[in-house]
Design a protein that fits this description.
With 419 residues, the protein is mainly α. It is 83% helix and 0% strand.
């Protein structure tokens, strides 16, 4: 077998391994979080304001943990220590929810909120961000497009969304058990995964000099950092804060909560199917038009979804609007990683994703979750979502003038890499 054939074989092997990893990881964490707001509302008995506080606490803990994870990724290079840790935490989700989290939320609400925020952030909220950062990093070593690996995460999410609503109506604890079982499989995949490349290829993706705390602090003095953060604050904050209690809004269009749960699961699966398809085509579009254009496409789609959500009155229409989630996520994630790769030093790629994007996003969760919960109760879902959509449109237009318009750099061909 010549060098070219060997490189292609290894490339296919790492593609399959990374795809399987992200598929199972997304099934595992989605099995818990897809019906999380239902569980808090219907099984624990929390109202909209209390649920907003829960998500705010989760966001606050994620803000603290994500920069640590990002710094560790930049320091560890190709080592998988952090992935092992995340897998081990995730394995314990069932006993944690059953024996610790649920009793605490019912007897000592704020203690439960605090402990739950730490646990879910280490395993899922910060853990998912770290997994995606590793996916981008490992993929680029073998000239693999992030979107075409990450799309298998959408398939894992489809499996979860198609089943968790139905399972929730039987016993929500089964979903937490599925999460733990999936995390065990993830641990095995991480243990058997081998990411080995020659020094030339490694140095194109991984900086020779390890990131220091001073490199992270220096980011705060750059214009590029703050224009990117403005986009995250104006567009991405709204996406995820609005999505927290979107299931509660969605089921109001149906005759019973049980039917709403199942329909939300089915449409969630359909929107993830859309995400799968667009993850395949988004890299080509973003490579051609540039990551800035990809981010703007995301903003306009998000604005249309929430403005539309505030205006519609039928279950069919809200179902069609829900499908645009897949388009949003595809263009957002592909564009984010390409934007950071082109516009920031590779020494701080992991930190920029988990600090500049993920942590800033969760600061928005901390700030806006209680406010959104209050607005839902005071103004109703429709009026609140219309306001959110208009806000996203405003910041997308501003970002069209502020974001850098750099195009994709030449791909890295890992001819001498081996897995």
């Amino acid at each position: 077998m010549n060098k070219s054939d060997s490189a292609e074989k290894n490339r296919r092997k790492i593609y399959i391994t990374l795809s399987l990893f992200i598929l199972v990881y997304f099934f595992s964490w989605k099995a818990t979080l897809d019906t999380y707001s239902f569980w808090l509302s219907e099984k624990i008995g929390l109202d909209g304001v209390a649920i907003g506080i829960v998500f705010a606490a989760n966001g606050f803990c994620a803000v603290l943990i994500k920069p640590v994870y990002g710094f560790l990724i930049d320091r560890l290079g190709l080592r998988k220590d952090l992935l092992f840790f995340i897998s081990l935490i995730s394995i314990t989700v069932f006993p944690f929810f059953f024996y610790i989290y649920k009793p605490l939320l019912q007897s000592a609400l704020y203690a439960g909120i605090a402990l739950g925020g730490i646990f879910l952030s280490m395993g899922y909220y910060a853990g998912c961000a770290a997994a995606e950062s590793y996916l981008d990093r490992f993929g680029r070593l073998f000239d693999l497009e992030f979107g075409q690996i990450r799309m298998w995460g959408a398939i894992g999410s489809v499996f979860s969304a198609a089943s968790t609503g139905y399972i929730f109506n039987i016993n929500p604890m089964i979903n937490f058990g599925l999460s733990s079982a999936g995390a065990l499989i993830i641990l095995i995949i991480v243990f058997t995964m081998k990411i080995e490349v020659n020094e030339e290829v490694k140095n194109r993706i991984i900086a020779k000099d390890k990131a220091t705390i001073y490199d992270i602090i220096a980011l705060f003095s750059t214009r590029n950092f703050w224009t990117f953060v403005l986009y995250v604050c104006g567009v991405v904050w709204i996406i995820f804060v609005a999505e927290q209690q979107y299931p509660r809004f969605f089921i109001t269009f149906y005759a019973s909560k049980e039917i709403g749960h199942q329909m939300f699961g089915y449409l969630g699966a359909a929107s993830l199917g859309v995400e799968f398809l667009f993850m395949m085509i988004a890299p080509g579009i973003v490579n051609r038009l540039g990551p800035k254009t990809g981010l703007l496409i995301t903003g306009f789609v998000v604005a249309a979804r929430f403005i539309g959500s505030g205006l519609v009155t039928s279950a069919i229409t809200i179902g069609i609007i829900k499908l645009s989630w897949g388009i949003e996520m595809s263009f957002l994630l592909v564009s984010i990683f390409k934007y950071l790769e082109i516009n920031f030093d590779k020494k701080v790629n992991g930190s920029m994703y988990l600090l500049g994007y993920q942590s800033v996003n969760y600061i928005g969760t901390v700030i806006l979750s209680p406010l959104s919960g209050y607005l839902y109760e005071r103004l109703g879902f429709s009026h609140t979502y219309f306001m959110m959509g208009c806000t996203v449109l405003f910041f997308t237009i501003i970002s069209a003038f502020l974001l850098q318009n750099n195009k994709r750099t030449e791909p890295v061909i890992a001819e001498n890499a081996h897995a």
